[in-house]
Amino acid sequence: MSYQAVSKWENEQAMPDITLLPEISKVLEVSVDKLLGYISYDKRVTIYEEEYATQEYYWGLKPNKDCYKVLELMPPTKHLKLLDIGCGEGKDAVFFAKNGYDVTAFDISDAGIEKTKRFADMARVNVKVFKDDITDFRLNTQFDILFSSGVLHYITLIPNSVEKYLIIIRVTQTKTVCTFLMYLFKNLL
User: pTM (2 decimals)?
Assistant: First the structure.
């Protein structure tokens, strides 16, 4: 198995021989399910799953104050695609959609995803919502704005992961407004 082969798999240019999956999973120390994109969690994934499962909106319905900064820095005077990373219950995603952005959002919480969909329907706006884990997420679509509030400090910092996220942020800062709010971020630079 070569680095080039793995790179082609990662970039979706080729697929591995399925008979090699058990061996690959051992080398990478992940399950075959995870390799195939099917992740099962043995423990609670997020502390918010139970809070989001209630009728009330845990964080309320008002957008984060930094949403207004994004609106000021990059007003949707033209078509702008925004990705809300870790959207929770969708208050920020819905705010952006109400203000004319083309919004895509994801979260790891099933209850949060359902609430985001429900809130977008109530607000009569379109928000494309899906479930994903930020540690597994691959950005394969161009976005004008990457927005994340209160998420990155939950990432377990393992060797190379910090470098991976900093590279993503550096690369996207040239064309993208990045609003990443996290308690530890300043310590990583």
Answer: 0.65
